[in-house]
Design goal:
By secondary structure, the protein is mostly beta strands. The protein has one domain (13-103). Helices cover 8% and strands 32% of the residues. The strands form 2 sheets. A 5-stranded antiparallel β-sheet has the order 4-3-2-1-5, with no helix packed on it. Strands 6-7 form a two-stranded antiparallel sheet. A hairpin with a 5-residue loop joins strand 6 (93-95) and strand 7. The radius of gyration is 14 Å and the shape is globular. The N and C termini lie far apart (38 Å).
Protein backbone atom coordinates (compact mmCIF):
# COMPACT_ATOMS: atom_id res chain seq x y z
CA UNK A 1 0.00 0.00 0.00
CA UNK A 2 1.39 3.39 -1.00
CA UNK A 3 1.06 6.33 1.41
CA UNK A 4 0.82 9.96 0.37
CA UNK A 5 1.75 13.04 2.31
CA UNK A 6 -1.36 14.76 3.64
CA UNK A 7 -2.28 17.90 1.72
CA UNK A 8 -3.90 19.57 4.77
CA UNK A 9 -2.66 19.93 8.34
CA UNK A 10 -3.90 19.92 11.93
CA UNK A 11 -5.71 23.15 12.77
CA UNK A 12 -6.35 24.05 9.15
CA UNK A 13 -9.83 25.29 8.24
CA UNK A 14 -11.26 23.41 5.26
CA UNK A 15 -14.57 23.16 3.45
CA UNK A 16 -16.25 20.30 1.63
CA UNK A 17 -15.97 20.38 -2.14
CA UNK A 18 -19.65 19.41 -2.70
CA UNK A 19 -21.61 19.88 0.53
CA UNK A 20 -22.15 23.10 2.52
CA UNK A 21 -20.00 22.47 5.58
CA UNK A 22 -16.59 23.48 6.84
CA UNK A 23 -14.41 22.60 9.80
CA UNK A 24 -11.08 22.46 11.58
CA UNK A 25 -8.88 19.37 11.12
CA UNK A 26 -8.13 17.67 14.44
CA UNK A 27 -6.78 14.29 13.25
CA UNK A 28 -5.51 12.70 10.04
CA UNK A 29 -5.54 9.06 8.93
CA UNK A 30 -2.99 8.23 6.18
CA UNK A 31 -5.65 6.03 4.52
CA UNK A 32 -9.28 5.16 5.22
CA UNK A 33 -9.70 3.99 8.82
CA UNK A 34 -13.43 3.82 9.44
CA UNK A 35 -15.84 0.88 9.19
CA UNK A 36 -16.65 -0.90 5.96
CA UNK A 37 -20.33 -0.24 6.72
CA UNK A 38 -19.65 3.52 6.84
CA UNK A 39 -17.78 3.40 3.53
CA UNK A 40 -20.48 1.29 1.83
CA UNK A 41 -23.15 3.78 3.00
CA UNK A 42 -21.67 6.40 0.65
CA UNK A 43 -23.40 6.31 -2.75
CA UNK A 44 -21.13 4.46 -5.18
CA UNK A 45 -21.05 7.30 -7.72
CA UNK A 46 -19.46 9.64 -5.12
CA UNK A 47 -17.64 7.08 -2.93
CA UNK A 48 -13.97 8.11 -2.49
CA UNK A 49 -11.06 5.73 -2.81
CA UNK A 50 -9.66 4.39 0.46
CA UNK A 51 -6.00 4.94 -0.52
CA UNK A 52 -5.79 8.62 0.39
CA UNK A 53 -5.65 10.64 3.60
CA UNK A 54 -8.91 11.02 5.54
CA UNK A 55 -9.49 13.89 7.94
CA UNK A 56 -11.40 14.20 11.20
CA UNK A 57 -13.06 17.62 11.41
CA UNK A 58 -14.75 19.67 14.07
CA UNK A 59 -17.40 20.59 11.51
CA UNK A 60 -20.30 22.99 11.15
CA UNK A 61 -23.06 23.75 8.71
CA UNK A 62 -25.82 26.35 8.87
CA UNK A 63 -27.80 24.32 11.42
CA UNK A 64 -25.40 22.51 13.75
CA UNK A 65 -21.90 21.43 14.78
CA UNK A 66 -20.67 17.83 14.56
CA UNK A 67 -17.61 15.65 13.87
CA UNK A 68 -17.04 14.69 10.22
CA UNK A 69 -14.75 12.18 8.51
CA UNK A 70 -13.82 13.34 5.01
CA UNK A 71 -11.52 12.14 2.22
CA UNK A 72 -8.80 14.45 0.98
CA UNK A 73 -10.32 14.54 -2.53
CA UNK A 74 -13.46 16.16 -1.08
CA UNK A 75 -11.77 19.00 0.80
CA UNK A 76 -10.67 22.49 -0.19
CA UNK A 77 -8.94 25.16 1.91
CA UNK A 78 -11.44 27.57 3.50
CA UNK A 79 -9.99 31.04 3.06
CA UNK A 80 -12.98 32.97 4.43
CA UNK A 81 -11.09 33.98 7.58
CA UNK A 82 -14.20 33.27 9.65
CA UNK A 83 -13.82 31.27 12.89
CA UNK A 84 -15.44 27.85 13.18
CA UNK A 85 -18.00 27.75 16.02
CA UNK A 86 -17.68 24.07 17.04
CA UNK A 87 -17.46 24.00 20.87
CA UNK A 88 -14.70 21.35 21.05
CA UNK A 89 -12.20 23.49 19.12
CA UNK A 90 -11.20 25.38 22.29
CA UNK A 91 -10.21 22.10 23.98
CA UNK A 92 -7.47 21.40 21.40
CA UNK A 93 -6.70 24.64 19.59
CA UNK A 94 -6.16 28.34 20.01
CA UNK A 95 -6.84 30.91 17.30
CA UNK A 96 -3.84 32.46 15.53
CA UNK A 97 -3.47 36.09 14.49
CA UNK A 98 -3.76 34.93 10.89
CA UNK A 99 -7.22 33.48 11.56
CA UNK A 100 -6.32 29.79 11.65
CA UNK A 101 -5.88 27.43 14.59
CA UNK A 102 -2.83 25.94 16.28
CA UNK A 103 -2.62 23.15 18.83
CA UNK A 104 -2.74 24.30 22.43
CA UNK A 105 0.40 23.73 24.45
CA UNK A 106 -0.07 20.79 26.84
CA UNK A 107 1.03 21.17 30.47
CA UNK A 108 3.77 18.95 31.81
CA UNK A 109 1.93 16.73 34.35
Amino acid sequence: MKFRTAKFSLGQIVKHRKYPFRGVIFDIDPTFSNTEEWWQSIPEDVRPTKEQPFYHLFAENAETEYVAYVSEQNLLPDESGKPVRHPQIREMFERTREGGYKLRARGMN
